[in-house]
Amino acid sequence: MYRLKQLFGNSLASRIFETQQTEVHARVAAMNIMTCLSMPVSVRVGIALS
Q1: In terms of Cα–Cα distance, which of 2, 3, 23 is closest to 11?
Q2: What would the pLDDT profile of 1-50 be if each residue is shown by its tens digit?
Q3: What is the SS3 string spanning 21-47?
Q4: Is position 4 within any domain?
Q5: Which among 6, 8, 46, 50 counts the fewest CB atoms within 10 Å?
Q6: Residue 28 belongs to what domain range?
Q7: Is the residue at 33 inside a domain?
């Protein structure tokens, strides 16, 4: 979490509420992309014989 705060900053740059919302949406979208890229791909290996 520290790296995200360092990357995005601790405060919003905009003063108008509507632009603050847009800024937050952009930050969340960037965080979601970074999270998706860092998730491992799980692949099932082997066949279960019963």
Answers
A1: 23
A2: 566 667 777 788 888 999 999 998 988 898 888 888 888 888 888 777 76
A3: HHHHHHHHHHHHHHHHHHCCCCCCCCC
A4: no
A5: 50
A6: 15-39
A7: yes
Provide the residue type at 41 as one letter: V
**For the whole model, what pTM was predicted?**
0.64
* Cα dist from 28 to 8, 15, 34, 49, whole Å: 10, 19, 10, 44
Question: In this structure, which amino acid lies at residue 13?
Answer: A
What phi-psi label fits residue 9: left (phi over 0), alpha (psi between -120 and 50 degrees) or beta?
Answer: left
At 6, list the tokens.
């360092």
**Cα 48 versus chain centre, distance:** 36
